[in-house]
Design a protein that fits this description.
236 residues, 4-stranded parallel sheet, 11 helices, 48% helix, globular
């Protein structure tokens, strides 16, 4: 059997890619260099903005660029691929059809984790880009598990997008005040949990910390990447 090798198709954005790899390192049960997963990271910052592509831009061009990167990692001997970008999973099943190695499906694995949790929620909030929300990728997976999805209203969705694009992608920590307004709405709507469905929001969590009410899709992807490569998770 060939050696397991993780491929990370990143650059969406680069800081989120860095945080994702750090989480893979943190969650791997390792005591020395050789206990970690051999990993190739392709941080392709030229991939078109996924939200813009899905909502009326060049979706096909975005897909072709993602496929090019995935093929590059496959050609380098990667045995499993992780894409630390929720919105890019709009293309995941189509990409999988052209690859011979598995993509660890961030969205699907996150909803499965939510569904199998001890406190399985009936209603969850979804925090992500306009592209992720309007593409319905989380809504479809949640519906299959009998979970209702609630998104922020227009004003708070603008706040979410501002945190992502105006702050995190520009290297800032993100506004606590904006996030607090979104949090209040989700709780007022009766959400029993919420999904951080954008890796920039995962970066926000790394800077500020968030309560267990929030399930971070990046955490799920990191853990599933470790397991897919046959490595053990560190006990936390």
């Amino acid at each position: 059997m060939s050696e397991a090798r993780l491929g990370i198709l990143g650059g969406m954005g680069p800081q989120a890619t860095q945080v994702f790899y750090q989480r893979v390192l943190d969650r791997t049960d390792a005591a020395r260099d050789q206990d970690h997963i051999p990993t190739l990271i392709w941080s392709d910052t030229a991939i078109p903005d996924r939200t813009a592509a899905i909502l009326g831009g060049d979706a096909e061009g975005c897909y072709r660029r993602l496929l090019e990167g995935a093929k590059l990692l496959e050609g380098c001997g990667c045995t499993a691929l992780a894409i630390p970008c929720n919105t890019a999973h709009y293309f995941a099943d189509r990409l999988q059809g052209e690859l011979g190695v598995p993509i660890i499906h961030m969205v699907r694995r996150t909803v499965e984790a939510l569904s199998s949790s001890a406190r399985r929620p009936r209603r969850v909030g979804l925090l992500g880009t306009d592209g992720t929300i309007r593409a319905g990728i989380y809504q479809r997976e949640c519906a299959a598990q009998g979970i209702e999805v609630v998104s922020p209203g227009p004003e708070n969705q603008k706040r979410v997008m501002s945190i992502i694009y105006d702050e995190i992608k520009k290297g800032e920590a993100g506004s606590r005040e904006k996030f607090a307004a979104v949090d209040r709405e989700l709780r007022a709507l009766g959400c029993e949990a919420a999904i951080l469905a954008c890796t920039e929001l995962s970066v926000y969590r790394s800077s500020h910390g968030l309560p267990p009410f929030y399930l971070d899709a990046m955490d799920v992807l990191a853990e599933q990447s470790i397991l897919a490569c046959g490595y053990r998770l560190r006990t936390v």
